[in-house]
Amino acid sequence: MKCRIDEIAKLHPGQLLTRIREVDDPNATGYVVYSGKHFLADSFQPESDDGKQDKVIRTEEDVMLVKQGMLLISLTTNKAVIVSEAHEGHLLTSNYIRVDYDSSKIDPNYFCYVYNESDAVRKQIAMNEQGASLVSRLSLQQLRKFELLCPALEEQQRVGAIYRLQQKRELLQLEKIRLEKLAVHALLNTYLQGRN
What is this structure's pTM? Predict the structure, then answer.
């Protein structure tokens, strides 16, 4: 059975940073901006240490914050993710759409699977992308109309759990490879230093 995103969820865009009035007061609350590197971490992708500090916005205004378990869609990567505990309280920007889903109709892990991996969604994204620039963006109205395959909730939960475990497994495999490389480099460096 197919369902449209607007039948199972309400979509809310994040905030435009230019519309948030920053203050210089060091006592004002500072909010870390939820960025691409946070999204990658929540997607079980290896973190890239670009050496940049997290952007912090100090403001006295009410701002939209991400919460653990919140479902997001990135407008820059056209991928969905569930926010981890590590990023709770970060400021949600207009690069992301918050998906307030009906848990009686859709499982969040399944949503991520079908949104990120299904050919049907990839085709809808390709048909609806706006702009001829390198960064094409979907509109909120287009996203609301996207159709997803929505089997029974129990089946969604099984598929979603398998998808999440697979993502974790892939990250662990990449981490294992990274650690093996470090160990080999350390061993070779020790060997070379011993020859001098």
Answer: 0.83
